[in-house]
Amino acid sequence: MIVCHRHRIIFITTRKTAGARIESALAEFCGDGDIVTGTKAANGSTQARAPTGTGGALALTRYRPTDWLRLMVRGERALLARHLAAAEIRALVGADVWGSYFKFCVERDPWEKAVALYEQRTRDIKPRPPLATFLAEARPEVLSNFSLYSIDGALAVDRVIRYEHLDAELEAVRNLLNLPAPIALGLRTERASHYSTVIGPSERALLDRVCAREIELFGYAFSEVAPEDR
Q: What are the extents of the domains in the chain?
């Protein structure tokens, strides 16, 4: 998540949409007092920069039992999460900032995103569980990004960039906001095979249900590859 006061930007980081690389690129435009989550500390841990006085720490009023336990046992303050939802960010920055800043995020084809998430989260599990098992056990909010960029079921951002056109749409945002340099992401790793080679009828039915809101909102459609390509 990025809150850049200099350029009046709020970027909501969604899952499996190049969010970490976009955060890193946008961080180049940020300064003291801005919020930048997910940056890497020298020891490799994830931390957050936040408005002066908070030090990147989560407010004590928002602590969960595990946060209090970590504070008491290790003396460690909880940090702002990377995947904060729109309502949480609005509460963090205040209604005036939320209402006057340009808010955007990235969304991705839900079937492609689910396979990418599965590959990431199971790559170190031996033996790797079937995709159907992973999807059945995953929380709906992990498989769908909609709740991150909506409030009370309504779209809460000014622009949703399509991952399928990421570079072009990021450049359009840069021009719209008059940013001093391109939002440079570098090369992306593409999947070797089409998602339809691993998503069967039961997996598709689950994803169609969980991701129904973004499928309808952005007109996503499940696509099949030719039989000879399977």
A: 1-108+145-188, 109-144+192-230
